[in-house]
Amino acid sequence: MLFSCPKCLGELIRSGSSYVCPSAHSYDTARSGYVNLLPPSGASVHGDNREMVAARRDFLNTGHYLPLANRISELAVKHIRKGARVIDVGCGEGYYTEIIEKALSDSGKDARFAAFDISKDAVRLAAGRCKNVTFAVASAYHVPASDGSFDAAINMFSPLAPEEMRRILNTGATFIIAFPAEEHLFGLKAAIYDTPYKNAPLPTELSGFRLLECERVRYEMELSTKEEIRALFMMTPYAYRTSAVGRERVLGLESLSTEADFYICVYEKVGE
To answer: Using CA atoms, how far apart are residues 5 and 10, in angstroms rounded to an integer?
Structure first.
């Protein structure tokens, strides 16, 4: 088991349908194969809800983000060493997880792959999609993994907790991050808002890591159906921040041209 007990970070051992640590903390395995390692907080819903998760699955399955997924996979194969323990931070419904894990496997890297997300609805779909990955429900700010237990990590648009990444990655580990560039989905914003805005540029410096390479992936997406437009809109935060007028405007579109615009940064963890 690549994950550790979230309470004591002890090793988790499979016992029947559960995982148990030496301190006798026990975690049941869900029917679809994932384990919930999220500490109780009293909140009934964590992360993206079922509607957002389903919308993202539907949009990603159209292939509009496949150029990004393929480039991430190429960089993973290039930088991640053979036999590495890899963790996908905030894996969502598993679209990128599946593609990256397959690329590593096909290249003979023989990686051991784990992935987690704070959304139970997302992890349920991911676990059904990727059979060669260990899945858990967990938070990026409290990763259920022991210190230095991973050789590589991937973060696709998920919240970044640098202190946790420094903790769970060993020295020399690879950390690949993808995040929106300035013009990402500008066409969608123009359809929603009277005065659309560009994303603020994000710094590439990351304490405790050395930047190996950073590149921009940019291309135009042509959405030709209402279903594609709705899926894209509903998977973004704009669906819940947009006025009724803006929402009606974008959902009434028959077609949409918008930008896919991303940065991909590859880091190496440096010694203390």
So the answer is: 5
| DSSP β-bridge partners for residue 219 | 260
For residue 123, which of 137, 133, 110 has the smallest C-alpha distance? 137
Residue pair 23/7 in contact (Cβ under 8 Å)? The answer is yes
Q: Which CATH architecture has domain 13-39+47-269?
A: 3-Layer(aba) Sandwich (3.40)
36-65 residue pLDDT tens: 998 776 444 567 788 999 999 999 999 999
DSSP result, the chain: --SB-TTT-PBPEEETTEEE-TT--EEEBPTTS-EE-PPP-S-S--SS-HHHHHHHHHHHTTTTTHHHHHHHHHHHHHHSPTT-EEEEET-TTSHHHHHHHHHHHHTT---EEEEEES-HHHHHHHHHH-TTEEEEE-BTTB-S--TT-EEEEEEES----HHHHHHHEEEEEEEEEEEE-TTTTHHHHHHH-SS--PPPPPP---TTEEEEEEEEEEEEEEE-SHHHHHHHHHHSTHHHHS-HHHHHHHHT-S-EEEEEEEEEEEEEEPP-
Q: Provide the pLDDT for residue 41.
A: 61
Query: How far apart are the C-alpha atoms of 132 and 155, rounded to whole Å?
Result: 19
Beta pairing, strands 26-28 & 18-20: antiparallel
Half-sphere exposure of 210 (CA within 13 A, CB side): 9
**What six digits make up the tokens of 61?**
């399955």
Mean of the pLDDT values across residues 238-261? 91
Residue spans of the domains in the chain: they are 13-39+47-269
Q: What is the pLDDT of residues 161-214, one digit of tens each?
A: 999 999 999 999 999 999 999 999 999 999 998 899 899 888 899 999 999 999
- 82 near 109, Cβ under 8 Å? yes
